[in-house]
């Protein structure tokens, strides 16, 4: 140990915290300081508009004239309004059919992607595309696809395949327009469902499938008894989100049909906008928007309590 | 119950060969342990036996039937997985009855069969619990129960104890062995733990990089390892293997130490092997410097150095030596193993 040289002597300086650091040492100050930005943003952009919307629903405000408190009058009026009932019907129908379609196709796609495919990551990226594209852009693309004159589907059916003699009228009458919008919504919604369910599928241990294979299961039985029950909790959460997004959909319908023809494709959101902004009846529009809340609460409670928690997920142990 | 014949089986994943022609004969009712370091192909072999991996070349027969192209469910085997693979959304009862449920067995049959297996394993009180609510050892038992319920020809175990703590492992080891003695079903058991292999097996198959190094009863592998790999793998603490050559009145190690040779030893010996427990303390022994002393209570392990050569010794008696002191040690002459330098093969001694 003779080779070591002695280090020059120095005194360890004790760092004195500045006044700012001392203030942040007080826990309550730190908590308030950290919470403030988030709370301020939420209050400004979420709580205030929501509160204002609910308040407006109980007034007869129109654009340019501040209204008076009218109590439940707007809602009483809506109950007698065939357009509102029409929008309620189509919102429920649209949500039900589109959710079913999205989950059937999305689950199927997720099961396919869960296999070992060549170019797996490229395929996954491609599948996400419809979701990445801004809704309005894809709505305009669908508008073209559904165009009475230039529709590519009509072109294929009439000129290429020759199975029809006339162009298809996608958006000109009520039911074809309703189904066309649902198809567009399914196309847009599949990626979200497929990717979320794929993430769920990948948490299922492969050895469970091997054990089931040795237990003598068929492919369908493995899906029925292993995949599906284990996917159910994630399925419930994804479904809750999907129902909320679909029920409150606005962009797709507004960009493609604007609620027409003859108000047949109005969702509650588009009807609320139509009444409130172009129609100027802010109070009534707000009442339509508020009338969505019970439906959403019901859908959320249903999927949360009906599907989400299972007894086998509870209990001791974290592994 | 059935015999299992593995005949010259090969396995390749693409261009990577993992098994190079493995042959193992397993008698009816035998408990065979496949043991080897990780990556040696033992789990792959077990999975091929189960039908979870296909067989690149060679044959596997269970009983008289070649099963190369028989799907797993028709092979009449049951497997216990390393992570148990219990279905988390089913109760213990449902887990154990799952194979019967798939086969549409009546409820009474399920209850009788599960009840029988639960009784053997002491699981009666846990049948309505979910896997999450069980301890590691209980899950292990449920996994075995699921296998027992199947009444298979062959039990397969894939490192079943590696997720348990040391104490439970020893306990479950005894339970599995006892279970085998009661049921007398042919069992193939994979582990990387040579103590598990030694204590449980009727026959051990030591594997290394896709080949069988040696197969035989545990004590034969311990007493007469056929090559350096088996010599170093079986036994704990591991055998001392000293490189050098015959000459200078004994075996001269590379560091210069001279170790005594048994009579009639081959002059070709290139590696001198002696197990730690076969080195004795003798006043007339070779002087050695103590480097490290590890008392375990039942024995004392000492690492001692003769010249440049380190030897691990395990003495039954208490040794009071301290590092730096000199002790006198002597290998037991009848228990010295000599190996050829290049091939690593055992030389008849």
From TrEMBL, chain A:
It is a multi-pass membrane protein. It comes from the Bacteria. Its main location: membrane. Keywords: Cell membrane, Membrane, Transmembrane, Transmembrane helix, Transport. SUPFAM superfamilies: MetI-like (SSF161098). PROSITE patterns: ABC_TM1. The keyword Repeat does not apply. Belongs to the binding-protein-dependent transport system permease family. This is Sugar ABC transporter permease.
From TrEMBL, chain B:
Keywords: ATP-binding, Nucleotide-binding, Transport. InterPro entries: AAA+_ATPase, ABC_transporter-like_ATP-bd, ABC_transporter-like_CS, ABC_transpr_MalK-like, ABC_transpr_MalK/UgpC-like, Mo/tungstate-bd_C_term_dom, NA-bd_OB-fold, OB_MalK-like. The keyword ATP-binding applies. The keyword Transcription does not apply. Residues 4-234 form the ABC transporter domain. It comes from the Bacteria. Pfam families: ABC_tran, OB_MalK. GO terms for molecular function: ATP binding. Belongs to the ABC transporter superfamily. This is Sn-glycerol-3-phosphate ABC transporter ATP-binding protein UgpC. It comes from Paeniroseomonas aquatica. The lineage of its organism: Bacteria, Pseudomonadati, Pseudomonadota, Alphaproteobacteria, Acetobacterales. The gene is ugpC.
């Amino acid at each position: 140990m003779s080779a070591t040289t002695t280090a020059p002597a120095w005194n360890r300086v004790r760092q004195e915290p500045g006044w700012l650091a001392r203030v942040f040492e007080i826990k309550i100050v730190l908590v308030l300081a950290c919470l403030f930005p988030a709370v301020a943003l939420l209050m400004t952009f979420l709580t205030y508009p929501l509160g204002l919307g609910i308040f407006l629903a109980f007034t007869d405000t129109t654009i340019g004239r501040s209204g008076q408190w009218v109590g439940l009058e707007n809602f009483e009026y809506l109950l007698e309004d065939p357009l509102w009932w029409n929008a309620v019907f189509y919102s429920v129908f649209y949500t039900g059919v589109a959710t079913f379609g999205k989950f059937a196709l999305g689950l199927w796609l997720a099961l396919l992607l869960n296999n070992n495919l060549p170019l797996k990551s490229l395929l996954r990226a491609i599948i996400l595309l419809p979701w990445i594209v801004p809704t309005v852009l894809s709505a305009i693309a669908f508008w073209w696809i559904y165009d009475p004159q230039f529709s590519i589907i009509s072109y294929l059916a009439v000129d290429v395949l020759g199975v029809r003699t006339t162009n298809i009228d996608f958006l000109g009458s009520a039911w074809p327009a309703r189904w066309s919008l649902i198809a567009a919504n399914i196309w847009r919604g599949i990626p979200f469902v497929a990717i979320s369910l794929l993430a769920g599928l990948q948490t299922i241990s492969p050895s469970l499938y091997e054990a089931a294979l040795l237990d003598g299961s068929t492919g369908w039985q493995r899906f029925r008894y292993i995949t599906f029950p284990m996917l159910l909790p994630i399925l419930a959460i994804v479904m809750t989100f999907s129902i909320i997004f679909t029920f409150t959909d606005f962009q797709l319908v507004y960009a493609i049909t604007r609620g027409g023809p003859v108000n047949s494709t109005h969702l509650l959101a588009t009807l609320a906008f139509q009444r409130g902004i172009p129609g100027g009846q802010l109070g009534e529009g707000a009442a339509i928007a508020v009338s969505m809340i019970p439906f959403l609460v019901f859908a959320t409670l249903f999927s949360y309590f009906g599907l989400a928690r299972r007894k086998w997920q509870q209990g001791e142990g974290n592994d | 119950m059935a015999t299992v014949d593995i005949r010259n089986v090969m396995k390749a994943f693409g261009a990577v060969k993992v098994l190079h022609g493995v042959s193992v004969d397993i008698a009816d009712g035998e408990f065979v342990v496949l043991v080897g370091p990780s990556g040696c192909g033992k789990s792959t072999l077990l999975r091929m036996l189960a039908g979870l991996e296909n067989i690149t070349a060679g044959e596997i027969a269970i009983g008289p039937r070649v099963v190369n192209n028989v799907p797993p469910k028709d092979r009449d085997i049951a497997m216990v997985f390393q992570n148990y693979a219990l279905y988390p959304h089913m109760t213990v009862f449902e887990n154990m009855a799952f194979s019967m449920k798939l086969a549409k067995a009546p409820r009474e049959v399920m209850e009788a069969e599960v009840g029988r297996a639960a009784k053997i394993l002491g699981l009666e009180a846990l049948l309505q619990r979910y896997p999450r609510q069980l301890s590691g050892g209980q899950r292990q038992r449920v996994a075995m129960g699921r296998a027992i319920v199947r009444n298979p020809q062959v039990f397969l175990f894939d490192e079943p104890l590696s997720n348990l703590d040391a104490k439970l492992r020893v306990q479950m080891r005894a339970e599995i062995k006892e279970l085998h003695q009661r049921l007398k079903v042919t069992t193939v058991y994979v582990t990387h733990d040579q103590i598990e292999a030694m204590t449980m097996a009727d026959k051990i198959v030591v594997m290394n990089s896709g080949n069988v190094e040696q197969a035989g009863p545990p004590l034969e592998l311990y007493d007469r390892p056929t090559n350096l790999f088996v010599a170093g793998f079986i036994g704990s603490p591991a055998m001392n293997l000293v490189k050098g050559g015959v000459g200078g009145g004994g075996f001269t190690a590379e560091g210069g130490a001279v170790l005594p040779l048994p009579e009639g030893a081959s002059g070709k010996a290139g590696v001198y092997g002696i197990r730690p427990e076969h080195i004795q303390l003798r006043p007339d022994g070779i002087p050695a410097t103590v480097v490290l002393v590890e008392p375990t209570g039942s024995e004392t392990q000492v690492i001692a150095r003769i010249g440049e050569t380190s030897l691990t010794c395990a003495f039954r008696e208490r040794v009071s030596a301290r590092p730096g002191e000199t002790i006198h040690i002597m290998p037991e002459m009848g228990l010295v193993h000599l190996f050829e330098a290049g091939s690593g093969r055992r030389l008849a001694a």
